[in-house]
Amino acid sequence: MKLKNGWMLVPALMLGLFVTALMPGCSVGDPNDVTTVANGSFSGNYVGTQNGVLVAHNTGNPITSLTVSQSGNQLQAVDNNGILFKGTIGDILGNGGTSNASSSGATATFTLTGATTAGQSVTITGNFKASGSTATMTGLWVEPTLYSSFSGVASITPVSTSTPTQTATISVVANPSNEGTVSGGGTFTVGASVTLTANAAAGFTFTNWNDAVTSNPRTVVVPAGGATYTANFH
Questions:
Q1: Which one of 34, 164, 209, 232 is separated from 13 by 20 to 30 angstroms, measured CA to CA?
Q2: What are the residues facing 170 on neighbouring strands?
Q3: CA separation for the pair 124, 55 (Å, rounded)
């Protein structure tokens, strides 16, 4: 009877917390500290930290590791016994969460459901917390007649936040086209230096570029969006 009463107390407390969170005026955190989970991944092989096991107490075979795969907010995990668990992950919170899950201090809540090797249904709720390229998985393991703590650590791959290289096209034109030739045009990285050259045909002379620059050859910096330079001949 004592175990039953102790067990019933847990959902009652959880319900009280849930209702309190919904009361008007209650703060649920700064929305500026939240980013969508798509910005990071906690995928990895989580190995137990409690004397070599992930779950302190469970029916069936011991749980020593859990291989987690994340796609957006969807989670899939397979334990060392080959049992599949499925669930979801919440938004990433905390320091560094705006870039990726592996940023130091980034955390996220999650839920997984599955079963033990003894056929008992299981719900796992808890948190992922990252520190560099390492993530810790902690929370509560709940079976119909048993609940327990669990903890595991995994190496995770940082999500790239580098900005893709931006390119632009430099076009070079001869005016008139029969009085000379030009070179140096093409597609380049924005910000790169490019040399443009105007070569007058026999009997003709290079005058200037369309922006009144008379240097030849000349060096230009590739702007975002590209540019066209016309060499004038006469």
A1: 34
A2: 186, 227
A3: 10
CA–CA gap between residue 37 and residue 108 (Å, rounded): 8
pTM of the predicted model, to two decimals? 0.52
> Whose structure tokens read 């093409």?
186
Question: CB under 8 Å to 38, separation ≥6 — which residues?
Answer: 72, 73
Q: Which long-range contacts (CB under 8 A, 24 or more apart) does 175-183 make?
A: 175/210, 175/230, 175/231, 175/232, 175/233, 176/233, 179/204, 179/233, 179/234, 180/204, 180/206, 180/231, 180/233, 182/229, 182/231
- Taking only the tens place, the pLDDT of each residue in 188-232 is 988 889 999 999 999 999 999 999 999 999 999 999 889 999 999
Fold that domain 32-155 belongs to in CATH: Lipocalin (2.40.128)
Residue 73 in contact with residue 128, Cβ under 8 Å? no
What's the mean per-residue pLDDT of the chain? 79
